[in-house]
């Protein structure tokens, strides 16, 4: 599974909801420093929502050192490239960015200034040695489990001649050593990492190698962070984990809680209107989780549940640990519990050994389920994974043709889903200003971006919106009469349109 949303949520999601200013850009929403920032920090984040969350936490860790946000890398005293390794071209992108930054760094040094350049994330974890060899101007290379050591690394980098490299999996958890989330807190819709790593070892996936073994944060720490996020204005929290529904954190009174129980406790937090989680694995959907979907109006009726393929042969080769029928049964249980649930998924075409008949089985599964949205990828070998050395590679032309056919079907389903919302009044969480004056942007329960005219004072509220038009990736509508609307008012009254 995954990620991603995002995803694990290790999913580079095209068009995924992102925190403005962090994902793929600077860190304009980094944590508040206690003193005015004296140094400027720019973080570029690729890939999944967990990387976006991590970028926020790195900003938190560096804020006490006087780092505030920079608008662009050229204006920064420190640049962090937070990388994603899930699919191909990750290292090419990184090295081309590093080449550009080398020139900026040189110019800075020519005028007596300094720029600290760090590479973080999964490419750093997987290719640390190659980065220091090919780009010796990089000062710090750090894997995803060592962010809490950043201040020490920055200090060491200012003394060291070569790069400071930290890509081990330290015995202490970074979560115990990071300051309270600040940067990640800002905004109506917040991310909260509850679980990291993966023990499932799907044939194609680097995550178990780059993010390490599965780890769940204790429930008390998660609840405390959620309460802080809500106190800082969050109305929606998306729980993140590479394998988020494998969550089994220490419970406050001893024992452990699964994700279903954790969601129940989170739903008790006053002011928290919406809960989501991503990314989950079909094997870890237990009864408690299904019951949480049934009972909690705060838990949004949208689930990203990667299946990857509809062929049992390929699912076996992928080491997914479930069949297509298992997946369909999980979907059935979830839809019985929450009839308005809409589904999203991830698919890979062209895994080694995939034949035309296997691909047809994938199309059949897509037709049977009906997805509101999905991500599909051509298989790309990731060094060190079992599939990378498997026989029967699929020719590139076949992969291309399959991807096109699958994406056409998924696009049709997505458009059909969006069209089915036109004419309905749906609860929309207003998350920020829109693109045009007088417009605000929000999210439907099914994660569609929604644009409408409304007073900015309503941002942060769930309001009823009459949907007027559907576009491929968003909806537009108008504020419907009446006061703020609880998400629960739409529950189970209308089945999911997908
Ligand atoms: N090739 C293509 N897609 C991949 N994914 C993960 N690894 C690979 C790979 N080697 C996709 C899966 C996963 C999503 C985050 O990325 O579909 O769920
Ligand atoms: Fe998801 Fe499988 Fe990768 Fe684990 S190994 S993160 S379950 S795709």
From TrEMBL:
GO molecular-function term, one example from the UniProt record: 4 iron, 4 sulfur cluster binding
Required cofactor(s): [4Fe-4S] cluster
Catalytic activity field: N(6)-dimethylallyladenosine(37) in tRNA + (sulfur carrier)-SH + AH2 + 2 S-adenosyl-L-methionine = 2-methylsulfanyl-N(6)-dimethylallyladenosine(37) in tRNA + (sulfur carrier)-H + 5'-deoxyadenosine + L-methionine + A + S-adenosyl-L-homocysteine + 2 H(+)
Annotated region described as Disordered, given as residue ranges: 1-30
Record's keyword terms, sorted: 4Fe-4S, Cytoplasm, Iron, Iron-sulfur, Metal-binding, S-adenosyl-L-methionine, Transferase, tRNA processing
E.C. designation(s): 2.8.4.3
PROSITE patterns: MTTASE_N (PS51449), MTTASE_RADICAL (PS01278), RADICAL_SAM (PS51918), TRAM (PS50926)
InterPro entries with a match to the protein in the record: Elp3/MiaA/NifB-like_rSAM (IPR006638), Methylthiotransferase (IPR005839), Methylthiotransferase_CS (IPR020612), Methylthiotransferase_N (IPR013848), Methylthiotransferase_N_sf (IPR038135), MiaB_methiolase (IPR006463), rSAM (IPR007197), rSAM_horseshoe (IPR023404)
Family to which the UniProt record says this protein belongs: Belongs to the methylthiotransferase family. MiaB subfamily.
Function statement: Catalyzes the methylthiolation of N6-(dimethylallyl)adenosine (i(6)A), leading to the formation of 2-methylthio-N6-(dimethylallyl)adenosine (ms(2)i(6)A) at position 37 in tRNAs that read codons beginning with uridine.
Name listed for the protein in its UniProt record: tRNA-2-methylthio-N(6)-dimethylallyladenosine synthase
Gene name in the database record: miaB
């Amino acid at each position: 599974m995954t990620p991603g949303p995002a995803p694990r949520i290790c999913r580079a999601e095209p068009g995924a909801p992102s925190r403005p200013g962090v994902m793929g850009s600077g860190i304009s929403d980094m944590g508040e420093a206690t003193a005015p920032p004296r140094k400027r920090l720019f973080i570029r984040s690729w890939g999944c929502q967990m990387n976006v969350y991590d970028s926020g936490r790195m900003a938190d860790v560096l804020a006490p050192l006087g780092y505030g946000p920079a608008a662009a890398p050229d204006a920064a005293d420190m640049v962090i490239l937070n990388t994603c390794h899930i699919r191909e071209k990750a290292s090419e992108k990184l090295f081309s960015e590093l080449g550009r930054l080398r020139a900026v760094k040189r110019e800075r040094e020519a005028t007596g200034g300094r720029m600290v350049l760090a590479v973080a994330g999964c490419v750093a974890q997987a290719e640390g040695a190659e980065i220091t060899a090919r780009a010796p101007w990089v000062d710090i290379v750090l894997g995803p489990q060592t962010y809490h050591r950043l201040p020490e690394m920055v200090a060491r980098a200012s003394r060291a001649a070569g790069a400071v490299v930290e890509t081990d999996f330290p015995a202490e958890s970074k979560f115990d050593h990071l300051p309270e989330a600040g940067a990640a807190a800002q905004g109506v819709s917040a991310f909260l990492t509850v679980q990291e790593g993966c023990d499932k070892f799907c044939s194609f996936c680097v995550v178990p190698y780059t993010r390490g073994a599965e780890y769940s944060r204790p429930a008390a720490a998660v609840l405390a962070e959620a309460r802080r996020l809500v106190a800082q204005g969050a109305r929606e929290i998306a729980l993140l984990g590479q394998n988020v529904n494998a969550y089994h954190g220490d419970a406050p009174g001893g024992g452990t809680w699964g994700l279903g129980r954790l969601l129940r406790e989170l739903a008790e937090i006053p002011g928290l209107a919406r809960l989501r989680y991503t990314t989950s694995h079909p094997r870890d959907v237990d009864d408690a989780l299904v019951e949480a979907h049934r009972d909690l109006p705060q838990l949004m009726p949208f689930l990203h549940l990667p299946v990857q393929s509809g062929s049992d042969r390929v699912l076996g080769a992928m080491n997914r640990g479930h069949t297509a029928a298992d997946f369909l049964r999980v979907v059935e249980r979830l839809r019985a519990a929450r009839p308005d649930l809409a589904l999203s998924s991830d698919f890979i075409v062209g895994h080694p050994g995939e034949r035309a008949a296997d691909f047809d089985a994938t199309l059949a599964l897509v037709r049977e389920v009906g997805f509101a949205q999905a991500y599909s990828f051509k298989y790309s070998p990731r060094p060190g994974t079992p599939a990378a050395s498997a026989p029967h590679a699929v020719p590139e032309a076949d992969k291309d043709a399959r991807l096109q056919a699958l994406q056409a079907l998924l696009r049709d389903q997505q458009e059909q889903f969006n069209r089915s919302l036109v004419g309905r009044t749906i609860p929309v969480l207003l998350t920020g200003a829109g693109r045009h004056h007088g417009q605000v942007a929000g999210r439907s329960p099914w994660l569609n971006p929604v644009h409408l005219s409304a007073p900015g004072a309503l941002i942060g509220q769930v309001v009823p919106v009459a949907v007027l038009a559907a576009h491929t990736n968003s909806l537009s509508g108008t504020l419907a009469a009446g006061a703020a609307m609880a998400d629960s008012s739409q529950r189970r009254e209308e089945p999911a349109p997908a």
